[in-house]
Structures are given as structure tokens and as C-alpha cells.
Amino acid sequence: MNPDESERDHPLHLYFMYKATLYLIVFFSFLLLLSSCAVNKSPEAFRFRALQKGKVKDDSSYVYALPYAVGTKHRLVQGYFSRFTHRNRAALDFKMKKGTAIYAARGGVVARVKEDGDKGGLDAAYRQFGNNIIINHSDGTRAGYWHLQHNGIVVNVGDTVQQGQLIGYSGNTGYTAFPHLHFIVWKSEAGNWRQIGTRFLTRKGAKYLRPFKKYKRPA
Ligand SMILES: [Zn+2]
After folding, report:
1. Which pLDDT value is given to residue 35?
2. What digits encode the pLDDT tens for the residues 97-122?
């Protein structure tokens, strides 16, 4: 087909109108997608936002220690119910270099340890390699510390650990895009483990952490 023929079949202005419409459709679908991602509408997510904003005053929940060394600070890169990989998770991601010492956020009994994973990446296929520690607390909750370094765990199943005790070293194993500690607390409800948000002791008192902020662990 020579250019003259195509011109006759598809006049140029129609072609541009078609293109413009297509771009508009793509643009608005993108906006729609963004706005739907922005807010998780589950009741749990609502409750969390209220807690984070300090709207819930009467709070006697346990105060956890930030899970790294006293005087050091790390940025919370993903908070509760955030957009990336935590859309339906009440988990926290603290960005930190591989080999950062991890301390128990709360005392308890070590229930599970995995440290033989030596791979990590942004693909669900890597999930099985995620080294982790699970610690059971006295009130029936349990905490998980994820993506730890290969052979980087210094406690064993059955050990009793105190809050602030060294338990291992961070890494980048499992389903992860960059070196960080993924921290999560579950509560058993009628046989199901439900993820819950927890308060941490910060320099400004007991707070529900907010994403993109750096938190220093006070003495
Ligand atoms: Zn995470």
C-alpha cells in the first residue's frame, strides 16, 4: 500500500482523534487505578488510620521496642496496609543494610527459626527462601521477623528471650526488593492468626508508626 492510499482510507485528522481518545482513556484508567489503590477500605485499615492519627485515645496495648540497636534509626518504608506489597497486611518494613543487628521487640519464647535461605528477589518464587524468627508472647500474640541473613539467627526454638535481646541479623532473603526487616504481629482468634498493629516506644512516646518516617530507638 502506498502512502496516498492509506491517506484516503484513514484521513489524517481521524487518525489523530483516534490517538488522542486512546491516550485519554489510558490516562483516566491510570488515574482510576491510582485512586482505588490509595485507600484500603477494610474496617481494619480504618481502625489503623485512626490509631496512627492518635484519634483513638484509650489504648492500653503493649508497647513494643523498635527491633534494632538503641540509638540507631531506620526508615519505615512500608507501613500498615500500604500500597506496594502490604495492601492487606498489618506489617512494617524497616529499611536497613544487610547484617544489621535485630533485637526482640518483645520478650517471649522462640517458636520457629529458619536461616537456611540464601536467595532473595522481587518475585513470589523467592518467598520460600525468606529466613525468619517467630516469637510467641505471653498474651497469645506472636511476632515475626523476616528476610534475615543466611545463617544469621542467634536464638533457637524453645529459647526464652527478653525484650531488647539480640536475636539475629537482617538480610535480603525471600520475597523482597531491597534489604530490610519485615516485622509483623499476629493474634490468634478462633484458631486463625490475624495480623494486628502494635505501638512502639519512640523518642516521642508510644506511637503507631507511620510510613516514610525514620524512627530512632530510645534508650
Ligand atoms: Zn514487608
Report:
1. 46
2. 999 999 999 999 999 999 999 999 99
80 and 147 fall within a common domain = yes
Predicted local distance difference test score (pLDDT) of residue 36: 44
Residue 197 β-bridge partners: none
Confidence (pTM): 0.76
CA of 133 to the centre of ligand 1 (A): 14
Angstrom CA distances, 62 to 32, 48, 74, 198, stand at: 39, 15, 21, 7
| Interval between CA 105 and ligand 1 midpoint (Å) | 16
105 and 71, same structural domain? yes
Instruction: Name which of 115, 125, 197, 190 is nearest 150 in CA terms.
Output: 115
- Report the alpha-carbon distance of residue 113 to residue 156 in Å, rounded: 7
Cα 171 to middle of ligand 1, angstroms:
13
Q: Name residue, grid cell 540464601.
A: 118
Range(s) of the domain holding residue 25: 3-38
Q: How many domains does the chain have?
A: 2
Residue 96 belongs to domain with CATH number: 2.70.70.10
Report yes or no on 51 lying in a domain: no
Whole-angstrom distance, CA of residue 40 vs CA of residue 46: 8
